[in-house]
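request received
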Amino acid sequence: MRDDARLLVAGASYAGIHMAAAAREKGWTGLITVVGEEPWAPYERPPLSKTFLAKGEAPEDIALRGEVFYRRHGIDLVLGTRITDVDHAARVARLDNGSTLAYATLGLATGGTPRRLTVPGGDLGGVHYLATLDDALALRDALDGARDVVIVGAGFIGLELAATLTGLGRSVHVLEAGERVMGRVLTPTLSAVLAAVHESHGVRISTGTGCVAMEGSGGRVTGVRTTTGETLRADVVLVGIGSVPRTELARQAGAALAGPGGGVLVDATMRTSVPGVLAAGDCAAFVSSYAPTDVPLRLESVQNATDQGRVAGATAAGAEAIYNAVPWFWSDQYDLKLQLVGIHDPASREVARGTPDGEPFSLVHLDLENRVVAVDSVNSPADHVAARRLVAAREHLDPSLAQDAATPLKAAVATSPPAHRL
Ligand SMILES: Cc1cc2nc3c(=O)[nH]c(=O)nc-3n(C[C@H](O)[C@H](O)[C@H](O)COP(=O)(O)OP(=O)(O)OC[C@H]3O[C@@H](n4cnc5c(N)ncnc54)[C@H](O)[C@@H]3O)c2cc1C
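response:
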């Protein structure tokens, strides 16, 4: 097989593996090489903040696919290796082991990297970030013998870690610079529900509070100095303040980015602005038909990386595919399963199904014409499953029927009067 008839994929995680597999399934006949910087065979990332720590799982327990899968799809995995440079005019990539790979099409599935907290003492031992399996292994070691944990950032990773570590008997204090927990993705109603659940498990949460410095002794962190002038004792500090897309290769290839720090711009076929370069997953920015504006956005979820990867693979193989999946996301905290469908519109209003302190509980977000734009559910798989269809179809829903938790969402839509009569 000719070396230059290669689909070269940068990044061996959800977007990269699904891109490679879909390309083969849709008829790519040349070589397919996936280069991944991490030394591990591709693995499931969500368990890292949950069962991998809580149950002490082994790396092989969270493998994304077995070896047979890669063999059957004719995918060469090159692991523990980073693509350092691409010369897209010559269609050649350079690897950090000094070798080069020629390619016909380049797929970027490089994900993101944790945003760093740049405060004095931020690089002391015992200060951790969680994005990779190696990070999770290092965190497990650090937790051995640790009692007090301070988590900086009450996003989904920070809160999942708070739940997991509380379950492991650690004393957890969460600092959040914003006004409320998970403020970027939840409305105040659900933020309050989550904060109350964490507090009932003994987690202390300080909102409107940031970290100004880490204190240490002998090179190890011992405390966190906050914007409110307190110093919190800490054996381990976990920082979860978001992620930054990895766009180095896209930049070298000349692909347009969605503004500073904004990801690689793609259209619905996952093509970038440069012919022969595709992108998918956490590193990609796109205009979502489910968002209230046409400002390109990035979604950081397994579903998005998988679906976009599959579309990019089909596009590489010359098949027709369009990405228009309804965004959805889940987070497990204690025995709560939080499932979010759609993208909130600040102009929409929310209708509660059930009471916030009971379960199951959902918030249905309706636009001005009473169309369903998003549904956030707590331990309500039935609402979640129905919501994926309702948001996709932008169904109209009578608010008074929506709030009747005894009526399944699906049935409430069927009996809602047409839009013009609402
Ligand atoms: C702890 C944790 C918990 C999560 N929990 C959930 C959850 O419950 N639900 C959910 O939907 N999502 C969850 N997510 C988010 C989800 O894991 C990501 O959205 C998803 O992994 C994105 O997939 P991706 O393939 O786009 O990128 P990534 O999974 O980030 O993979 C990108 C890969 O590319 C590699 N790479 C980058 N540059 C290069 C290069 N130049 N050469 C070679 N390799 C390169 C990186 O090393 C990395 O392995 C979680 C994430 C984390 C970190």
